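Minutes, project check-in
Item: structure for the 330-residue chain
Input as provided by the requester:
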Amino acid sequence: MSRKPAAAAARDRTRIELEFENPQLLGTLFGEYDQNLVAIENRLGVYIAARGAKLAIEGDAEGASRARDVLTGLYNRIDLGQEIDAGAVEAVIAMSAEPVLEGIVRTDVSEPPKVMIRTRMKTIVPRSANQTRYMEALAREDLIFALGPAGTGKTYLAVAQAVQQLIGGSVKRLILSRPAVEAGERLGFLPGDMREKVDPYLRPLYDALYDMLPIEQVERRLASGEIEIAPIAFMRGRTLADAFVILDEAQNTTPLQMKMFLTRFGEHSRMVVCGDPKQVDLPVNGHSGLADAVGRLEGIEGIAMIRFGRGDVVRHPIVGRIVEAYEGPG
């Protein structure tokens, strides 16, 4: 390897050596054409040299230490059979700088995640400290509000937890809902019957399901009613017992719709409300039911509020930069 950055050579450096037990895992750890090592070098300002199962890291003390933890954490994830892609590498690098315990210590990325969600198709692990807190809340709390920008995993992780509980038998039904309000469109102007009108709005929920379960199982469970995907208007008058219920795009509900939805809560059920308070598509002067509910319910026992920021975006890195540009001044 000959990727030694000039900046690293020009200052006092620390050298840290690593050796891994299973050399067969190093191809996955390094990535195609060493792309994972290059990403770590570029992000942390270090130089990484590999010889056999040994790695030498050079850079300033903080950068070298973080690179060691990132490499160790990625190796441990691979050793457990977890998939490592460019997004996972970026996430672990970002997590290595995230303070916890009021800034006293950092997230220990060198250890495998302590919380994960297992579905038929994949095992899902957190990619940020906030995702860790969210996944812990999903496993513990009865009502969770997940607030933040697109790409932070709010709905995806909720669907994963719901599928895990459905497979495990702790709930009998999975109900996914969202308001049929998008960028000023109205259902009456769309062609087709009611299902054809609402399916485009619900497509992200289908996409998440197909990531968690084989297609034939999704279709079978949809046909049997074990999984139900419907606009929020279809929730009126029902009591949702023994169910995992997810409301997506909740910022586009009215306060009356949100109250109606939350009061559907039944025995042995769990609810997750996902939304981005900054992306409201309601008519001008329409008050968001999500903002109203957060204002009324924050601090109530048994209700968790998880707030994500642009640093939690786990899609392509450019999505985080886009979110930052739109949230910045001007």
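Outcome recorded: The longest strand covers residues 14-19.
No further action items on this chain.
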